[in-house]
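Exercise 7b. Backbone tokens:
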């Protein structure tokens, strides 16, 4: 007898809970991809755990466990120490047998989404200390019983937290979510895809991208109490990000390279949940100022310089940076992105 677990995801990109299917995704956030199925044969005997035994143990991990695997199929899913890179952190295992006795048929996909949002979100919020940033770095996800498991009487929903990009692609985390700031920031040196005028997942900086993250700043020190107005955030973030950008680029003259510094601001819901950090990043405008232009290469002082011409140019001597005031702003799902004067 084999055991399987199915990942699924919400079709509402604005919902506070997004339930993600671990696997390859096709199309936009609103498109439900085909189910990815993991198999866990029943383990017997002792000795060194086999890959099947590791997958079985991972599927039934207790709260506080971290899981990792190689996308898209999860065939090597295993439990790892949370200090190591991982893709999923278990927050609870919820039993729904009171609502679905032995004779009940399994819910359809839409009903599973509703059940998981209702059952997993409270536990995940509690796991994070009572506050969940709906636009933050973590999304509430779930692993439901497969049809075979359901027929065997399994009524548990495995709930957890996960990082995903805008397209649903999985992003690794390091360290337990319970002890981390929920601000939806990225590591300096991360570049984000540009798909039309939509900001996408992390991508190699040598390929066409929208932004390169040059650092992060903490707005909490400047605004220690109530939520600050968006304009006040923009002004402070611009001030702080200028220093971060100069340090990252070696005070390169970004305007001479047709590049623009940008900074993010936080939404009220994120502030209420305790998020205070935003990304500082560099991008480029289209010639008519109507949106973002794709760039290639890195603006890091020690790396190949970014270029809007389709190829990376050679870095020259760094010169003092120049502030550019574009006429457009770019909005993301978790923060609002603005450039100085934008």
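Sequence design result:
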């Amino acid at each position: 007898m084999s055991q399987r677990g199915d990942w699924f995801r919400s079709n509402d990109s604005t919902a506070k809970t997004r339930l993600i299917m671990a696997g390859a995704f096709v199309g936009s956030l609103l498109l439900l991809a085909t189910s990815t199925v993991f198999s866990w044969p029943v383990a017997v005997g002792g000795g060194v755990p086999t890959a099947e035994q590791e997958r079985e143990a991972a599927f039934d991990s207790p709260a506080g466990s971290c899981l990792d695997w190689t996308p898209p199929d999860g065939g090597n899913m295993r439990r790892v120490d949370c200090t190591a890179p991982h893709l999923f952190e278990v927050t609870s295992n919820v039993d729904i047998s009171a609502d679905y006795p032995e004779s009940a048929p399994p819910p359809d996909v839409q009903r599973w989404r509703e059940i998981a949002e209702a059952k997993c979100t409270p536990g995940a919020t509690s796991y994070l200390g009572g506050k969940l940033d709906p636009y933050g770095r973590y999304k509430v996800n779930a692993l439901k019983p497969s049809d075979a498991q359901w027929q065997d009487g399994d009524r548990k929903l495995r709930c957890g937290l996960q990082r995903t990009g805008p397209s649903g692609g999985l992003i690794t985390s390091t360290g337990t979510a319970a002890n981390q700031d929920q601000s939806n920031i990225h590591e300096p040196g991360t570049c984000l895809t540009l798909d039309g005028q939509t900001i996408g997942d992390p991508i190699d900086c040598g390929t066409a991208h929208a932004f390169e993250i040059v650092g992060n700043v903490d707005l909490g020190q400047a605004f220690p109490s109530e939520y600050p107005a968006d304009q006040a955030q923009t002004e402070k973030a611009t001030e702080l990000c200028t220093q971060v950008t100069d340090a990252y680029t070696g005070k390169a003259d970004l305007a001479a390279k047709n590049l623009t510094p940008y900074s993010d601001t936080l939404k009220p819901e994120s502030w209420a949940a305790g998020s205070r950090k935003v990304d500082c990043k560099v991008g480029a405008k289209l010639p008519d100022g109507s949106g973002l232009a794709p760039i290639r290469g890195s603006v890091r002082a020690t790396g190949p310089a970014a270029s809007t011409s389709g190829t990376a140019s050679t870095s020259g001597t760094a010169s003092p940076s120049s502030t550019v005031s574009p006429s457009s702003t770019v909005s993301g799902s978790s923060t609002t992105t603005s450039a100085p004067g934008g």
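Instructor comment: Residues 4-179 form one domain. The first helix runs from residue 51 to 59.
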